[in-house]
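Thread: sanity check for a docking pose with adenosine-5'-triphosphate

Original post by kr_44:
Hi all, I'm comparing my docking run against an independent structure prediction. Below are the sequence and the ligand SMILES. Could someone generate the full complex and paste the structure tokens? I mainly care about where the ligand ends up relative to the chain.
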Amino acid sequence: MRFGGLTAVRSVDFTVNSGEIVGLIGPNGAGKTTFFNCLTGLYVPTEGTVSYKGTVLPPKPHLVTQAGIARTFQNIRLFANMTVLENVLVGRHTRTKEGLWSALLRGPGFKKAEKASEERAMELLEFIGLAHKRDHLARNLPYGEQRKLEIARALASDPGLLLLDEPTAGMNPQETRATEELVFAIRDKGIAVLLIEHDMRFVFNLSDRVSVLVQGEKLVEGTSEVVQADERVIAAYLGEPFEGDPGQAEAAEVEAAEASADATSTTSTKGEAQ
Ligand SMILES: Nc1ncnc2c1ncn2[C@@H]1O[C@H](COP(=O)(O)OP(=O)(O)OP(=O)(O)O)[C@@H](O)[C@H]1O
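Reply from moderator J.T.:
Ran it for you. Here is the predicted complex with adenosine-5'-triphosphate included:
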């Protein structure tokens, strides 16, 4: 995927199998979200294709959802002034066959479909533990529940593959643990999960396989153990391997941090004086 002169994702060949949880990690700007956007039809890749169950997908978001791939976004994208139930029902629309006229006339076919959709939405709310809040406005939910609701909305399209973009961003440790259980439960339903995450403990704990993107290219892919031990990953992403006298290295880091803090406070003092 190229943007003008910038190649954001280069020759990334990537497969997710059913029943798998796969983690996609990499430093900021590595191309992870761009890769998700290519998979879901938000971007039309400059070269290459995305296939689902052996069929090449047209790069159009609604067709990708219809085919069986659903996603959440890095930032919450709920309908804040709609209820919890309504938000899930919105995610259901790709699976209802009733057309516009039927919906407008609210004929018997529409009412039946509406009832079935509502039942399915309630099942999903039970599954994520928000059934008791069905009539609450989305904006009034605590942050962790809003993220859960996004996942329920994505599940409402009955996906075979769920893409989660930083599902634990901004969560406290309890919410993160609950999300971990939720992802396992989703996998246990037979849905494949591909997730972008910066929380390394979360990603290595959950994933059957982890793929590392660096500057738009796949650096390494393997089990959590393999990836965590890979020298290139440690150097490029997890931090330099620890070498030499720890005392000296620490002292140098503290000195550098103090020097930069001094510089910042001098600048801000100057700023205030002006
Ligand atoms: N629509 C766009 N137009 C131009 N450049 C873009 C566009 N989207 C992404 N990029 C660039 O592509 C590169 C990859 O960005 P991307 O957001 O995919 O990285 P990321 O790995 O998801 O980062 P982060 O972890 O910070 O979310 C960056 O250099 C970014 O500036």
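The chain has eleven helices and ten strands. Hope that helps with the comparison, let us know if your pose agrees.
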